[in-house]
Amino acid sequence: MADIKYYDVILKPVVTEKSMNEMADKKYTFYVHTDATKIQIKQAVEKMFEGTKVAKVNTMNLNGKTKRRGYTVGKTNNRKKAIVQLAEDSKEIEIFQGL
Fold first, then answer.
1. What string of H, E and C letters represents the secondary structure of the chain?
2. Which of 39, 51, 53, 80 could form a disulfide with 91 if both were Cys (CB 3.0 to 4.6 A apart)?
3. Considering the domain boundaries, does residue 99 fall inside one?
């Protein structure tokens, strides 16, 4: 397993209608590195966004889709998604405020 730094764990936030509705319950969704563990995700969120305390992390592996372009068959990359539940006394994550 590769040595993953905390700034390499979180790739980008997931902005969908469902993830925006879950923000009212302090649940934030991110695409993360495929080798990242729940503990690494928790540490990365707490270091990158000051004042946040993570209560729980749920992860899911998303397999790549099979795509065709004429006769050639290929596959998109596998991804990993994490839903981060913040504690009640935690600060909110500010990158989602303008959305």
1. CCCCCHHHHEEEECCCHHHHHHHHHCEEEEEECCCCCHHHHHHHHHHHCCCCCEEEEEEEEECCCEEEECCEEEECCCEEEEEEEECCCCCCCHHHCCC
2. 51
3. no
Is 46 exposed, middle or buried (CB count within 10 Å of its CB: 0-12, 13-18, 19+)? middle
Q: Residue 95 has what pLDDT?
A: 78
CATH number at residue 39: 3.30.70.330
Q: Does 52 have pLDDT greater than 70?
A: yes
25-37 pLDDT, tens per residue?
999 999 999 999 9
**Which pLDDT tens digit goes with each residue over 58-76?**
999 999 999 999 999 999 9
Domain span including residue 22: 6-89
